[in-house]
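$ fold --in a.seq
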Amino acid sequence: MLKPSYPIRTDRLILRPYTPDDLDALHAIHRLPQVTRYLYWGPREREQTREALERKITETALLEEGQALTLAVELAATGELLGDVLLIWHSRANRTGEIGYVFHPDHNGRGYATEATRAILELGFDGLDLHRVIGRLDARNEASARVLEKLGMRREAHFLDNEIVKGEWTSEIVYAILSREWHARH
């Protein structure tokens, strides 16, 4: 079980639960085709973003396996919403989880995704006592692969044409890191 104390601060970022006031900033991210290109969903209308936000607002703790923790990521210096990070608790018995992240492209290349995802991995390993965490991505998403590699995750699988997403066959790459590998690095 994981009930973090909020906000969570890194050198440059604040990770916190979403609030209804985040709708405009979240929609500015979710409406962009370049953001959703490699995701399961396409650019969202405002009402679709509102529905997604309502779900994200409830994802503030991991009380049971199968639940997700989603945190808004804002720039500490300005309060601007940059995107979000996600931790899914897959299995209590196997102590496994999964991470994910979505960021506004205006902030790419500055290490924000890596910094925020490092904090969510710390929650998974130190707060939830996970043994193994994975990150899955569309094989074409090279920028996302670089984030996972910077975190010390290793590429474990490449599934060719394993899913039809948005009407086309897509390939998936899976990265992973074990608790002992994480703690050896940090």
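$ fold --in b.seq
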Amino acid sequence: MSLILYIVSHYSTKLFICLLFIVQCTGAAAEQRFTAGSDANTKNLSAALAEADYPPFYFVDDKDRLSGISIDVLEYIAPKLGYSIDYKRLSWPRVLKSLELGSVDMVTTFFNTGERATHVVYTGVPHAVESNHFIALSSTTVTYTGNLSDMESLSIGTIRGYSYGQTFDDADFLKKVPVLDEPTLVRMLFASRFEIAVGNPFAVKLQVKRQGYQRELRVIEPPIDVSPIYMGVSRKHTEALGIAAELTSAIVKFRNADQYKKLLQKYGMEQLAF
């Protein structure tokens, strides 16, 4: 009988040690899982921007920092929602394709069109407004009354994949000459490859300065379009609807804040306020 008790006691001790080891390992594993879970809770979003700077929405400033009203708005609201943003600079056609494929999560600066809505979930409200104009060499006498038929006889430089408002986009009677980006648009305008261009004056003037042209361009009034600018989340993202809803709620609140009004002043956009 004593032998049996010894065996039971001996192996019970070993069993207890084994159980204790298992518990310790399980606890360590649980701690590791908790730590990994905490890291996993950091929500990262990749945001697409065109390679060419597009002020006042996004551009690299004199201190080599990414700036612009779209950037500032997103950088203000993202941390409050628990997101960190990774910006990706791509050609504009690649921005559009990346949203379609889901290789980027979102876009910061987007016109709301039916065609684009098949690939992104837009924020419910815009965060800025953009004005697009016809732009010509200062030596030209081109005029515009607000009727696109005024420009029917002219060749017009545009950016491939950009929207300039539904009316202009649908005007098939215009002689549109698509190019890759703003730097190309400016070079070709000064080279008289087309007679006028269409675009955002902020972005075009930046390229005139960067490329060192001494002559000035003329921004023709009235604008061809004034449209709201949205953010959009790729529909390929499994949480696209939720992310867009969160961004919308945050933008609504921010647009009522004094800091937002200061951003409009900072980027010379007071006249484009909502």
